[in-house]
Design a protein that fits this description.
Chain B: Keywords: Cell membrane, Membrane, Transmembrane, Transmembrane helix, Transport. Chain B: InterPro entries: BP-dep_ABC_trans_perm, MetI-like, MetI-like_sf. Chain B: The chain crosses the membrane at residues 20-40, 115-136, 148-170, 182-202, 223-248, 280-301. The structure holds two protein chains of two kinds. Chain A is of the alpha+beta class. Chain A has nine helices and 20 strands. In chain A, a hairpin with a 3-residue loop joins strand 16 (294-302) and strand 17 (306-313). In chain A, helix 2 crosses helix 3 and helix 2 (92-102) packs parallel to helix 4. Chain A starts with a strand and ends with a helix. Chain B is globular. In chain B, helix 3 (63-69) packs across helix 14 (280-300), helix 6 packs across helix 11 (220-249) and helix 10 packs across helix 11. By secondary structure, chain B is mainly alpha-helical. A two-stranded antiparallel sheet of chain B has the order 1-2. The chains are: A alpha+beta, B mainly alpha. The interface between A and B is medium-sized, with 23 and 17 residues.
């Protein structure tokens, strides 16, 4: 197992820049997820780590060794493909043993290793079956088996659950994380599904247009999004934005949104007057008739324990997640109260988050860890 | 009002199945009649073969096969009677026609030539075709589209249109009437077909298989050999059959460029007619034997061929 260090990584296909200046470190034994919409460069980054694409610039270090320009087979990594890429002309046993055959391992040893691996994944009863008859989940396990049988430096997975049915997917998310807890292998996992990312990752990098927008733990990314893109991409429904104007002074604790005063976490930097946005997660909105921030109910989505209520305000529709018991009907006027401590502020132009007191917690925690 | 089962829009009704079946059987019968006729003629005696009205029922004889494999000379009955007892069936039959066997005919060496040239050129065309198709399918080849068009363009005119230049070139290069020359020629004609057919098949094989193998520690060539080739067998088999049929049946170039040592069966078989009257049974026997290799090859590969020609029609 090894740490993966990516420095100034860049990849261009002709005029199109797929990845620009990526920097991140995946620590030894960490489960790292690259998350982003399709075409954001996450798969290209993964393929460069694997050696299936060569970068246009930058460096990739695997366990301290520079592997940037090495061939895939010289890197000692394992890759799980979205379509599994199980060899249809081999049975399960041969598929799993295929990487060991490349190393010239004696067949008796291959046998033991394959059987150990199959047991770990609970597919030992399938070893002599043809891969074409397997169910989606079992194919996935065979693909994982082929990856872990080699005990490589790290695992790279490209949307491995993308083709599975939803029920299998939830099961496999759980299994993958459990497997990771057992073998503690450095893993880079690419997905566009935020639920997979949030439930499995130790660290997440959110990518967009070839740029890493934010790198952090699932909690950091959800609670303190670094950009409006991250805030909008993570969460279902995503974070709401309410526009406001004017600058911010260091130490400010209040802003004016749609004529209503809203308390915000203490601002930690001076911002010149410009278009700004206040970011609110749907679950941080409560209905309170005394509030000056008002809107009309536009529609509701009943989810059982909670309901998502769309409220039309002067600045467009925002969504609130409120207890299911509250009775509401379309057209009702409501006042909105926001949980001040959990609000984010953004500069609309750059999309960047303004430093406020919510970031203090993070730096304190980091200091404690350090 | 009676209840009827709703008819399915996808499954053919039993009526249409019956009609389709009848048409197929009729067509198969029509196609097979000439083959059966040739097969029957090969077992007739020369008089039976030209009898009118044609004989459907006849006493089968191996005379045609005897005549195919031997050359014979006409002799006086006195000479024939002076010979010792006949050494076998062929000897006996020949003597009845006032002839004696002079020696083996050229059929066997010509047939062997056909085997060597057809299978040799098929192997070369499929081998080169697979490698180039893989290259075109997986790598960024400069001017790939133009090259592929160029390869295809060699098929735009009938090959025989270039017969004269090839004849002259072959004479200069000493390739006339050599097996090597014929293998090169048939390979050149077939390789364009092979590249195009195989490129289609290889394009359908996801790259992930080779990528997985390369990550698992194999070189590209090993990955190609162990993951792409086994999955391309259907395509390779289908392509091989097409190439083989062309090379096996080709007549025009063979007639023009081979006359002796490298002559193939197609230009040889018609020459049998001339020897001692119109020997249709011998010609039919030659044709029957000539059909066997293709028949065997196609039957051996029929599964792959069927899957091959319907490839891509159904999502896997």
């Amino acid at each position: 197992m090894a740490e993966i260090r990516v420095q100034h990584l860049r990849k261009a296909f002709g005029d199109f820049v797929a990845v620009q200046d990526s920097n991140f470190v995946v620590e030894d034994g960490e489960f790292f997820v690259m998350l982003g919409p399709s075409g954001c460069g996450k798969t290209t980054t993964l393929r460069m780590i694997a050696g299936l694409e060569l970068p246009t610039g930058g460096q990739i270090l695997l366990g301290g060794d520079d592997v940037t320009m090495l061939r895939a087979r010289e890197r000692d990594i394992a890759f799980v493909f979205q379509l599994f890429a199980l060899y249809p002309h081999m049975n399960v046993r041969k598929n799993i043993g295929f990487p060991l055959l490349a190393q010239g391992m004696p067949s008796a040893e291959i046998r033991t290793r394959v059987e150990e691996t199959a047991k770990l994944l609970r597919i030992d009863h399938l070893l002599n079956k043809s891969v074409s008859g397997l169910a989606g989940g079992d194919r996935q396990r065979v693909a994982l088996g082929r990856a872990i049988v080699r005990r490589p430096k790290c695992f790279l997975m490209d949307e491995p659950l993308g083709t599975l049915d939803t029920e299998f997917r939830d099961l496999m998310v759980h299994e993958l994380r459990e497997l990771h807890n057992r073998i503690r292998a450095t893993t880079v996992y690419v997905t566009h599904d935020q639920m997979e990312a949030m439930s499995m990752a130790d660290k997440i990098a959110v990518m967009n247009h070839g740029v890493i927008e934010q790198f952090g733990s699932p909690r950091e990314i959800y609670d303190r999004p670094a950009t409006m893109f991250v805030a909008d991409f993570i969460g279902s429904p995503p974070m709401n934005f309410l526009g406001f104007g004017g600058g911010l002074a260091k130490g400010a604790r209040e802003i004016i949104v749609q004529g209503a005063k809203v308390a915000v976490p203490e601002v930690r930097e001076d911002i010149a007057p410009s278009d700004m946005a206040l970011g609110i997660r749907p679950e941080h909105i409560r209905f309170d008739d005394s509030s000056k921030l008002r809107g009309a109910i536009y529609g509701t989505e009943y989810l059982g324990t909670t309901q998502i209520v769309a409220v039309e305000t002067a600045d467009g529709i925002i969504k609130a997640r409120v207890p299911a018991e509250i009775r509401l009907s379309t057209g009702d006027h409501v006042g909105l109260t926001l949980s001040s401590a959990r609000l984010s502020l953004f500069e609309k132009g750059s999309g960047r988050a303004v430093r406020t007191a919510i970031h203090d917690v993070a730096s304190e925690r980091r200091a404690q860890h350090g | 009002m009676s209840l009827t089962t709703a008819h399915s829009v996808v499954a053919p009704s039993s009526n249409s199945k019956r009609i389709a079946g009848t048409i197929i059987v009729l067509y198969a019968l029509i196609s097979i009649v000439p083959l059966l006729w040739i097969f029957a003629t090969s077992f007739k005696t020369p008089p039976d073969s030209i009898a009118y009205p044609p004989k459907i029922l006849f006493q089968p004889s191996l005379e045609g096969y005897c005549n195919l494999f031997t050359t014979r000379t006409r002799q006086t009955p006195e000479y024939i009677n002076s010979l010792g007892p006949a050494t076998g069936f062929c000897d006996e039959t020949t003597r009845k026609r006032n002839m004696v066997i002079a020696g083996p005919s050229n059929f066997l060496p010509r047939f062997v030539n056909s085997l060597i040239i057809a299978f040799g050129s098929t192997f070369c065309a499929v081998f080169l075709g697979t490698l180039s198709a893989y290259g075109f399918s997986r790598f960024k080849v400069p001017l790939a589209d133009d090259l592929l068009f160029f390869i295809l363009s060699t098929r735009f005119m009938p090959p025989i249109a270039v017969a004269i230049p090839i004849y002259l070139m072959y004479r200069e290069l000493g390739l006339s009437d050599t097996a090597l020359g014929m293998i090169l020629l048939y390979t050149a004609v077939n390789v364009s077909l092979a590249v195009w057919l195989l490129k289609g098949f290889i394009d359908e094989i996801p790259r992930e298989y080779e990528e997985a193998a390369m990550i698992d520690g194999y070189t590209r060539l090993q990955a190609f050999w162990r993951t792409v080739l086994p999955q391309a067998t259907t395509g390779i088999a289908a392509t091989a059959i097409f190439c083989l049929i062309f090379a096996w049946n080709e007549y025009a170039f063979a007639a023009l460029l081979t006359s002796g040592t490298a002559q193939t069966a197609p230009p040889f078989i018609p020459t049998i007619i001339g020897e001692g009257g119109q020997d249709w049974p011998a010609v039919a026997a030659g044709t029957t034997i000539f059909l066997v290799p293709i028949l065997v090859f196609t039957i051996l590969l029929r599964k792959q061929l069927l899957r091959g020609i319907t490839f891509g029609a159904v999502r896997k």
